[in-house]
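Record type: monomer structure entry
Structure origin: computed from sequence
Chain ID: A
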Amino acid sequence: MLYADLFAAALRRCGKNELSTAVEILIEDSFALSRNRFWIEKNQAIRDGNGLRRFRRRLRRLLADEPLAYILKEKEFFGRTFAVSPAVLVPRPESELLVERALELLGSRPGHVLDIGAGSGCLAISLALGSSATVTALEKSRPALRVLKANIARFGLQGRVRPLAGDLFPRRGGPFRMIVANPPYLSRRDWRSAPPGIRCYEPREALLAGRAGTELLARIIAAAPPWLVPGGHLLLEIGQGQRRAVSGFLHAAGLREEDCVRDYAGIERVVVARRKD
């Protein structure tokens, strides 16, 4: 069998054009081929039996809607590759918008940042690597905390990113120059209509907030002001259609909304607020 035949046969099984890139990545990773080498050797015969068995096992998982990131045990985010597992959310491009805005606000000045619900650590680590800040990465899930610690070690940030077990806010520490969070923001209706790859594989507790979807956002905003230095920023990733409710929470908490960044689909996705001086 040729690599090209394996690729074509897998695509016929998928029946989904959007999986063509995933299939190609699975072939390249299973046979330890670079992208260029795959296309150069696509018309050559496959002689790696172990690689072929590895690819077929992984393809079955892909056909069962398992996210590619969990199959490969890693995901690229903000130009870096993070370890992931089903204990943490798969990092998404929308969250890179939060990192970009946070780095603009942090600039080159040192400061202390709190990442609430850090998961894989993609936000905390990206902020530490892109600024002079030190980051407290708070995570309540023990399995997720293990992934977080592994990624901190992967990037050699043991002195800059502090992993901490906890829910929403630490028991001590602060105040912080910035608080960032990508909290659960799916409503029950959103959860029921989510694709199988999300509902069946990603951690429900990191996605489902409650009936309305804004429950965790409301709790974070209400408790945030004492944890921020005067003039400190709060950046939150939010769900589609939640801007109005979040604006109300911010007003009630005495925080000034400064900006709302739209994602690549035009959805209001990252709210930026500030504690008044």
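Annotation 1: The first strand starts at residue 74 and ends at 77.
Annotation 2: The chain has two domains: 3-64, 75-275.
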